[in-house]
Structures are given as C-alpha cells and as structure tokens.
Amino acid sequence: MFLWNRQITIEPDSLNAGVAGLVDGVTHVNSVSDYEFSLWAPVLGTLGQFGISARCEDFGPFADEMAERGASDEAFRAKMNAMGSSIAENPQDTLWNVLHVAGEMGDVPNVCAVVRWQAAPHQIMPAIQFGIGMADYVSGISG
Length: 143
Description:
Blueprint: E1 2-9, H1 15-32, E2 37-40, E3 49-56, H2 59-72, H3 74-83, E4 92-97, H4 124-142
Antiparallel strand pairs: 1-3, 1-4, 2-3
Helix pairs in contact: 1-3
C-alpha cells in the first residue's frame, strides 16, 4: 500500500479563504474519486501548512485519475484556480510505501503522528523493525 501526501502552505493573510478552498476542493474530489482523500491541519508546526493524503494499492491508476481530474474536471479546476492566490508556495508531493499499520483510522478528528529518523544503510532493517515496534507501542497506548 502507498500513502500519497501533498503539503500545501497557505498565505497567513489568506488563511480563511485558503482553508475554505481546501475543504471545498477535497470535498469535491471525494464526491467523484475512487479514492478517499483526507485533509490534515497541524496541531504543532508552521502556521498555514496543510496536508492532503490518500492511500492506494497501485500508484499507476491513482496517478492516472489525478491527471484526468486536473485535465478534464472543470469544477475541480475552477475550485483550484479560485484559491490559487492563497497558496504561498508550490505544493510538495511525497509518496510513501506503507510498511506497517498500527491501529485503525476512526471517525474525524483523527490524529496522525509522523516520526522520521535516518539510519545508516547497513542498519535499515533494524531501524524498520524498531519503527514498527514503536508504532505498535504508541498505538497500544493511544488506541
């Protein structure tokens, strides 16, 4: 499974309009997509940063759907154009290979915790095992 994420930064003086545009855009996409997209706001972090994410089994069909929406979905394009001036910088996309899942996504509001670390190449497998153990431990505490 893959986790696609787009990080978007909204201009501080356009925060209300930008957030409304993000909510409107994600709501529209969820009404027409085969995938479920989530909109995330930080509890701690940089003011104006937001994340949009979706999970997919195969990135090819997912990317094809997104490209088709960008090219042919006039309602989506109008929504994105309307909020364009609210965006502070180019969005940044990442694609993650999900190695382990601890717990389940419940009803909104969810909390997502991301911990990153860097391991030497010869320590990759022990580092992954440690990360899985930590995810299970934290999930056991928080549910």
